[in-house]
Amino acid sequence: MTRSPRRDLYAVGAAALLVVVAALVGRHIQDTRHVLYVHWPPLLARWDPHVGPGSPAAVLLAVAGVAYGPSLAARLPWPALLATAWAAAAAWILSLALVDGWHRGLAGRLTTREEYLRVIGRFHDVPATLRDFTHHIVAGAPHPWPAHVAGHPPAATLTFVLLDRAGLHGGGWAGMWCVLTGATACVAVLVAVRALADETPARAAAPFLVLTPAAVWFGVSADGWFAAVAAWTVALLALAVTRRSPVLAAASGLLLGLTCYLSYGLTLVALPVLAVLLLGRDGVRGRPVLLAALLAGLAVVPVAFTLAGFDWWTAYHLLVTRYFQGVGGRRPYGYWVWANLACAVLITGPATVAGLRRACGTLAARTTGDGAPPRTATATARLALLVCAALLALLIADLSGMSKAETERIWLPFAMWLLPACASLPRPRVWLAAQAVLALLLNHLLLTGW
After folding, report:
1. Cis bond leading into 42, ω under 30°?
2. pLDDT of residue 378
């Protein structure tokens, strides 16, 4: 039953219906009440059919990925597969971004009024700015931060401050940073899947991680960079628990701390992290040395920022106030709590919907079956646990009400961990083609906010 192709199509049909209903209902709400603050609900986008410099490359990459992706993923040596996946993902993200042109699609994305690059000059004295950071979060405060700066801990903005200090000035370098680092997220997911499940599903998932519709929003938003840091957090921990390496566990903890200081919502990465610990050779309690190393690494970034004068908890509570002062307080929860899921369908694609149906079925069967502990489960069940942990994190983020709209970029760090569910699908080229066509249509028919 779990592997029924017909049930896959039913799931995809239901997801497509969700998207259509979200678009029609959202259009009605926006036209009559004007409270969604998006032009093409459920996405922050507007209708704008167009082609651009990146169109030929994007189409060529899509055709080549569908035709040769599965076979290359199956036969390339593992290190070559990782390098190829990164290069192909970066090319796919960049070509889609350039459909909108160099400035509109890439160089200008992070320079708009609410973005990070607008405040680079205010960080000339970094320690003083960190001490003063919380005083500018709430709207109405003196010199309030732009929305994205106020909406994230300061490590997000410091990323672009450090790029600027390194001589990489302007939106072009910032955009390329997000593209090139964001593309490594697919490599991190492959590393984790191979370590925790098996190399076979990792290879099967590789083309789907490359040709994901989420690439439309990886190029260019800072959330692509956040997704990469979160992905490597999980990947390094997966290597740590399978190789029993305290050094890798500490490195994972360090990145986990950084992740929480890039985005408040990414504290939910704790759920995939817990899944990795459950899937380790010895379970959560079997390796106290690894847990100690993880926690030691985790403490580094919070301690550093706290000593510098930034209070994470105070800033978060002020952010909640700022959120409800702006459009977040006027966007209706009753619409977005389900329309956000339509956004998730669009960024992960129909193949992921079918794959998630199978993963949830596998996990349910395992739960009601022999009750074997995760470390002795089949590769399919282990992968299903990892995928469903990310899905649970996404659902909690949705129910929180702090992600009403714009989840097509906000949820990129969770979306990447849903894509490996595609590894179980038959006829991968058909599903891969559906993924690529969706990405091309989104990028050529809509002008997205990122």
Report:
1. yes
2. 86
**Beta strands at 446-448 and 45-47: parallel, antiparallel or unpaired:** antiparallel
What average pLDDT does range 235-246 have in this prediction?
A: 95
Give the span between the Cα atoms of 201 and 168, in whole angstroms.
38
* Contact present, 379 and 200 (Cβ < 8 Å): yes
pTM score of the predicted model: 0.96
- Ramachandran angles phi, psi of 448, nearest 5°: -80, 160
| Contact indicator for 271, 115 with CB cutoff of 8 Å | no
Residue 32 bridge partners (DSSP): none
Mean pLDDT, range 131-143, rounded to an integer: 95
pLDDT tens string 65-92: 999 999 999 999 999 999 999 999 999 9
Tokens of 54: 């990146």
Q: How does pLDDT run across 283-297, given as a tens digit for each residue?
A: 555 578 999 999 999
d(CA 160, CA 170): 9
pLDDT at position 113: 93
Residue 192 reports pLDDT greater than 60: yes
User: In the Cβ-directed half-sphere of 408, how many Cα atoms lie within 13 Å?
Assistant: 31
Cα separation values, 179 from 98, 126, 306, 316, 404, Å:
12, 26, 30, 28, 25
Distances from the Cα of 218 to the Cα of 17, 327, 347, 408, 409, angstroms: 25, 24, 10, 10, 7
- pLDDT of 374 strictly over 80: no
